[in-house]
Amino acid sequence: MKVLLTTLNAKYIHSSLALRYLEKYCASEETEILIEEYTINDHIEKITKNIYQKDAHVVGFSCYIWNITMTLEIADRLKKVKPDCMVILGGPEVSYDAVDLLSKHSYIDYIVVGEGEETLKELLRCLSSSQSPVGIQGLVARAADGKIVDGGSRPFISHLDVIPCPYNENDLNVLKGKIIYYETSRGCPFQCSYCLSSTIEGVRYFSMDRVKSDLLFLIRNKVKQVKFVDRTFNCHKKRAMEIFEFLAAHAENTNFHFEIAADLLDDDMIEYLSKIPKGLFQFEIGVQSTNPETIKSIDRKMAFSRVAQNVIRLRQNDNIHLHLDLIAGLPEEDYASFASSFDDVFGLRPHVLQLGFLKLLKGSKIRQQAEQYGYKCTTVPPYEVLENNRMSYGDIVKLKGIEDILEKYHNSGAFGKSVHYMLRHHYPSPFRFFEDMAVYFEDKGFDKRSCSRKSLYDILFEFYKEKISGNTEEFSDYLKYDFVLNQKGANLPYWAYQEPVKEFREKCFEFLKNENNIKEFLPQYIGIPAKKIIKEVGFAGFRFNVLKGDRQKTVLLFDYNTLKTYDITRNFL
Question: What DSSP state is assigned to residue 233?
Fold first, then answer.
């Protein structure tokens, strides 16, 4: 029996951990299991054609809020042209209303509810031996007479090590260049009302030997990034420390991304993390809100003062990329309160501040509380909030505009000096800056068209000139720094101060021909001709010292390979 397991990922760079768990766990002599992954950006017709051509007896779809609409359309088409094919759905988006879905959609044969490995294995065993799977725990099935039968809930797998490693060398070859997802545990110790993890009690762990073996396999196969999907990776300090230490001892060029609770970090762990090599770890920290009433209303346990203290300490070393999250539309938080939360979290200087919008997920407690908080959300997935009794649709729309500006001018990392300059001199509230920029974008019509990265520098300069009473020359130097650092080889914009071109270029070559300069600033280029080095570096003159913040004329050298900047004024002028 040929079985095809498939899903539609949100982006090409993503991969499905769930499909590979199912494939490895359900492998048997009776079944040939294939995996095919697509994205929500692929055409439905193309996906349907590809699945049809696989000529599988059974097709299983992994369903989430981002792909359920397309998945149902593909399943419907597939069943019409291949009626003998068994269609199975599974995943969080179909686990909480499985009976209703089967009642409405005749092209679905089975829905696997909740944790799927054991249920799918039993289902495939029945199908391959022509036995009826009706009544299997964890399965909602359409019986021969058309009646829908709910087999009831299935107990979770208690010893997770019985599930094989989800990856082999063939998987890693297929997934080359994509994010590899991995978990060391299932479940979460917290009960946040907006999260599906709150529907599962307790945390189950893979053994440490198993985890180390899997991770060593990924490291030795030179995986670029491993993203841990543990809901709160550091909820068990001893385990987290042991894994951190293992990765630090064995990792080479792999980056590891963790979701952590910053308030659970203690002095010992922060001290250890301060010595981690730069680029090895990334931390995603869900703050969500700093409003105490909001935190209480969503059953969240978080001491923001402790979060802030620990994030500041982590940020000081700048060796771990910090990604902090906020959610707009939570209970008890109006527009002004959200602005305060934004300023609180932005003030911690995260490398990325993710502004997300609340989604009333099926199965979540907050979805059951929709009437209590006056929630209105989209009828179709992803069930995103439109308004509630504290935040109007107009407020949500404004925050959408701010989210776009935040992505462009902060999360991109391409405007560090210039935006910081504006915040330091003109905007005590970071939120107000992003709000004003969002209004400016809308007024000028920039929000209706795609803006290149290069054009964003021009827009920021014009915004400063039109809306802010300040030193345009000084600001343009800070903006020029960001431009040169992030736009390798590009011609300087109209607003940027520029030295006499011919004379300045000659001085650049003279600088690179001087062996002492190369030894001092660019030792990795010793023995390489200046005409080759100049392709890998940049030079720029400034009327202000943007590194020190004083009013001294400065020449800076930009090394694009290391992303380091050097003040070479004394060697250059």
Answer: G
Q: What's the CA gap between 459 and 443, in Å, rounded?
A: 12
Contact 534, 509 (CB under 8 A): yes
- Per-residue pLDDT tens for 206-265? 999 999 999 999 999 999 999 999 999 999 999 999 999 999 999 989 999 999 999 999
DSSP assignment of 431-445 equals HHHHHHHHHHHHHHT
pLDDT of residue 572: 84
Q: What is the DSSP string of 499-534?
A: --HHHHHHHHHHHHH-HHHHHHH-GGGTTS-HHHHT
Q: Tell me the pLDDT of the chain averaged across its residues.
A: 96
pLDDT at residue 493 in the model: 96
Residue 294's closest CA among 324, 247, 338, 263?
338
> What phi and psi, each to the nearest 5 degrees, are found at residue 283?
-115, 130
> CA 517 to CA 568: how far, in whole Å?
9
Separation CA 192–CA 232 (nearest Å): 12
- CA 525 to chain centroid: 36
- Which of 234, 215, 235, 233 is CA-nearest to residue 225? 215
Tell me if the bond preceding 164 is cis, omega within 30° of 0: no
pTM of the model: 0.94
**C-alpha to C-alpha distance for 203 and 231, rounded to whole angstroms:** 10
Give the side-chain half-sphere CA count within 13 A for 120: 35
- Could you say which DSSP state residue 513 is in? H
- Sign of the CA dihedral 383, 388, 390, 393? positive
Burial class of residue 5 (count of CB atoms within 10 Å of its CB; 0-12, 13-18, 19+): buried
Contact between 506 and 530 (Cβ < 8 Å): no
What band does 441 get if pLDDT is binned at 50, 70 and 90? Answer: very high
Longest CA–CA separation in the chain, Å: 89
| DSSP per-residue codes, 27-46 | -BTTBEEEEEEEETTS-HHH
Query: Cα(277)–Cα(265) distance, rounded to whole angstroms?
Result: 19
Under 8 Å between Cβ of 384 and 396: no
Rounded distance between C-alpha atoms, residue 560 and residue 570, angstroms: 21
Can you say whether residue 511 is alpha, beta or left, with left for phi > 0 and alpha for psi between -120 and 50 degrees? Answer: alpha
Tokens of 556: 């800076």
Measured distance CA(66)–CA(8) in Å, rounded: 8
